[in-house]
Amino acid sequence: MTRTVSGALVLITGAAMGMGRLYAERAVAEGAKAVILWDRDPAALFVTTAILNERANGRSQIAPYVVDIADLGAIAQAAQRVRMEVGNPDIVINNAGIVRGSYFWEHDNGDDTRPTMQINALAPMYITREFLPAMIAGSGRESRIVSIASAAGMLSSPGMSVYAASKAALIGWSDSLRLELARQGHGHVRVTTVCPSYITTGIFAGARGSLLTPQMTPEQVVDRVWRAMLAGRPMLLMPWTVGLSKALRGLLPLPVWDLLAGRVFGVYRSRDSVVGRR
């Protein structure tokens, strides 16, 4: 178990705001050797870089890169620059993601379906593939890969079909990668898959927490993810009712689960009033 990220190179996607910025602040506070920020918003990245540099006070290198990970070709180019200018990351946090909440037939393939799958599912694979070989080669050196998925990837919800598909793909890939690394004797590279319910980031503004599943603050989630990452925990479900719902969904007949999720827990109604971040 690694106790802190002190001396490590940490790469975070979607790092200019929200939870990505909180992860970056945590890395700086613990004395990371370098904090590598990937984001597609140059203005927000500039502001975050300035704030982090002030907090680091020379103790951590802050390395910002304007990268739109929806452009899968840009990932390889940015990764090459990172390796040349900073070094290969010891920790990769696949935090960036987008939400498209509509009924499936209302989605536009080009504006909704394709970018959702590219950013939420394919980009973490492409990014990790760029840096994983050096992590594996660094025998004995602790490395971490963290992917922020969603409870939606485990529990179906009306109006979230494409988003749920992207997160289900991310979960399947991330946890399979964990098993592959362990099987091949690369235990120094740990993979953590994170599946939270609604977080008050603004992306799901208007969402209603279902029964026993209140919305969580970004600070709460980041703290738990950070501790799980350091411990090399394989999977983190938040809050505990996500795990309960997953178990019930596997045990109960589907009509019974639909009734329970829809009328009792309110899972199927939780996004009826979602307006999202404007």
Would you mind describing this structure in some detail?
The protein is of the alpha/beta class and 278 residues long. It has a single domain (9-269), classed as 3-Layer(aba) Sandwich (Rossmann fold), CATH 3.40.50.720. It has helices at residues 18-29, 42-56, 72-85, 109-137, 161-183, 218-231, 240-251, 254-264; strands spanning 9-13, 34-39, 61-66, 91-94, 143-148, 189-196, 235-238. A 7-stranded parallel beta sheet has the order 3-2-1-4-5-6-7, with helices on both faces. Strand 4, helix 4 (109-137) and strand 5 (143-148) form a beta-alpha-beta unit.
Keywords:
single chain; 278 residues; alpha/beta; Rossmann fold; seven-stranded parallel β-sheet; 8 helices; disordered C terminus; NAD(P)-bd_dom_sf; Sc_DH/Rdtase_CS; oxidoreductase activity, acting on the CH-OH group of donors, NAD or NADP as acceptor; SDR family NAD(P)-dependent oxidoreductase; oxidoreductase
Topology of helices and strands:
Blueprint: E1 9-13, H1 18-29, E2 34-39, H2 42-56, E3 61-66, H3 72-85, E4 91-94, H4 109-137, E5 143-148, H5 161-183, E6 189-196, H6 218-231, E7 235-238, H7 240-251, H8 254-264
Briefly characterize the structure.
By secondary structure, the chain is of the alpha/beta class.
CATH architect. name: 3-Layer(aba) Sandwich
Rg over alpha carbons: 19 Å
Overall strand count? 7
Major sheet: order of its strands?
Answer: 3-2-1-4-5-6-7
Largest pleated sheet: 7 strands, parallel
Instruction: Give the percentage of residues in beta strands.
Output: 5-15%
Q: Helix amount, in percent?
A: 40-55%
Q: Look at the helices and sheets and give the structural class.
A: alpha/beta
- The outline comes out as globular
Quaternary organisation:
single chain
Family: Belongs to the short-chain dehydrogenases/reductases (SDR) family.
Pfam family, one: adh_short
Keywords: Oxidoreductase
Protein name: SDR family NAD(P)-dependent oxidoreductase
